[in-house]
Amino acid sequence: MVTWRRLTEQDFPLLRTWLEQPHVARWWNHETSAEAIERDFGPAARGEEPSEDLLISLGGHPLGLVQRCRLSDYPEYAAELATVTEVPEGAVTVDYLIGDPAQVGKGHGGRMLGAVLEATWHDIPGATCVLVPVVAVNRASWRALEKAGMRRVAEGDLEPDNPADDKTHYVYRLDRPGRP
Question: Region annotation Disordered: residue ranges (predicted)?
Fold first, then answer.
């Protein structure tokens, strides 16, 4: 069973370990010092930032992280995404990782994302859709989005998280059930 809760500062050592894993570091390209983890994840953990960092567990064991936010809370990011696809009012986005290398490639990404996406409609009543850009060469990531029920709606250039990557991104979308 997939469950989650808000990431807390007590989870930072685990998050740091995950961000140092080669399969995560390749795509997240994140500093992993204790100071960097505190700087980048502390405000959300303390509720000082509008995004949510969710610690995902599978069968009671930590599996990964999902970051979820309203795009309107990050207007610069929304504007960049709008160069590639329509960004409707109420749009939400997610980012995600599976931290434990032993759990990669087992279909957990799609299940994890599917559960969080389904809960988004309840958790964020004004959410109209979820938009997720993913680097085109990250096949495992966009396959997880497809398994979670998202559909590819656009392709275009966006600034990658890792400067080693090409700018080509696919954008995936899931509309609130019952919306046209």
Answer: 155-180
Nearest to 97 by CA among 66, 120, 55, 132: 66
> pLDDT class for 180, splitting at 50, 70, 90?
low
DSSP, res 161:
S
Rounded CA-CA distance 134/118 in Å is 20
Give the pLDDT of residue 131.
98
Q: Are 45 and 6 in contact (CB under 8 A)?
A: yes
Contact 108, 98 (CB under 8 A): yes
Q: Which of 155, 150, 178, 179 is closest to 89 using CA atoms?
A: 179
Question: Taking the model in full, what pTM does it have?
Answer: 0.94
pLDDT classification of 10: cutoffs 50, 70, 90: very high
Cross-strand bridge partners of residue 64: 56, 98
What b/e sequence results for 133-157 when a residue is b if at least 16 CB atoms lie within 10 Å of its CB, and e otherwise? bbbbebeebbebbeebebeeebeee
Q: Is residue 162 over pLDDT 90?
A: no
Whole-angstrom distance, CA of residue 67 vs CA of residue 71: 12
